[in-house]
Amino acid sequence: MLKSFFGGVHPPGFKTSTKNKNIRPAALPKKIILPLSQHTGSSAEPVVSPGDYVEAGAVIAKATGFISSNIHSSVSGKVLAIEPAAHPVLGKCRAIIIEPELQQKRLDSIKDCADSGFDPGKLNPADILDAVSSAGIVGMGGAAFPAHVKLSPPKNKKIDTLIINAAECEPYLTCDHRLLLERPIDIINGIKILANVLGVKKCIVGIEDNKCDSAEVIRNASILKSDIKVVPLHTKYPQGSEKQLIDAMLDKEVPSGGLPFDAGVVVHNVATALAIYEAVALNKPLYERVVTVSGDCIKDPANLLVKIGTPASELAAECGGFIKKPKKIIFGGPMMGVAQPSEDAPVIKGTSGILFLSKDIAGEYNEGVCIRCGACVRACPMYLEPTTIYYAAKKARFDIVNDLCALDCIECGACSFDCPARLELSGIIKYAKAMIKK
């Protein structure tokens, strides 16, 4: 039987335009913009200056604490400036701007293939953590939490299960699906590396049942690894949320205010597992990633291997330009992604997709009146009462909002999607959470 969870919604998939398209490298951009904050935690500190020459893979900014991440140059070229620039989440952020040279060079230490005797199970866990930290790897599903921190659970938390999140429940996005189809052996090796450093034997890959081809490929790739199990999931949003995955696959509940650690689980995105394999086996830092570029405005939607720091405008041109004028540009998926004021924002480590949507898809709506239908309550995967929180927040009664457990909201947008009155439930609850924390 397919695994699932309480609540959720079923938005249209919009995946057909890219799900059967192989990953292809994007052209070298004219300019690279590398924000110093591409991760949860403190910003990295530059170790280069304007005028310096850098090679692809070189460290250009170092982590400034345990919860931070190194940043590497994605191209070889000249550092033009270190100044505030567009950021897809923060709006603006200090960034290192690089002009790529025509003949690209990369660090000699980066390998093209793993050594013939590479065995993930025999690696030293401390060496794995050092490699992951040095490579600047973060969660690539969108949260961008430094991976070395996630792989260092508190000593009092017993981890018994590793879940690999391959649900990809957001509409339009197919980059993880293509990675599963095109890089299965490397992903399996990445999973084995993760299992090694965590000291777990139980490894589960969760894949929604609208991606049966990728589930079969991964199942075949892991056929000799009995400790890696592929579990089919019901296609439903937000199936890819950590807490919902744990609920669906293990029938465990992460406590209110808690983390997956508290349920004995670590969850990593499939792209993160691949990046960790490349860091450990190939000595390759995280300076490029696969991004789905799609939407009804794009002439030729694609899955592209993109240099981190590439502006959205260059990826739109890479895909043939526009056939309609975009009404909205979104980094990520349409449910939890972030709308952009312009095409200047660059790809960062957590960017899984860039969507260019016309007014036909991303039209504006006027809020109506709540009719107490309960659709938002049925849709909420966290068992909250969105309209009650919404009206309390509107009255600035954040004491009530806090009592209603608004901080447990995962900001998935399912309530807003299902609301017939088009109330801005998710946005107001996000605002209320910020006010409670303040």
From TrEMBL:
GO terms for biological process: electron transport chain. InterPro entries: 4Fe4S_Fe-S-bd, 4Fe4S_Fe_S_CS, Ion_transpt_RnfC/RsxC, Nuo51_FMN-bd, Nuo51_FMN-bd_sf, RnfC_N, Soluble_ligand-bd. Its EC number is 7.-.-.-. Binds 2 [4Fe-4S] clusters per subunit. It is a peripheral membrane protein. Its cofactor is [4Fe-4S] cluster. The keyword tRNA processing does not apply. It is found in: Cell membrane. HAMAP family: RsxC_RnfC. The complex is composed of six subunits: RnfA, RnfB, RnfC, RnfD, RnfE and RnfG. This is Ion-translocating oxidoreductase complex subunit C. It comes from Candidatus Taenaricola geysiri. The gene is rnfC.
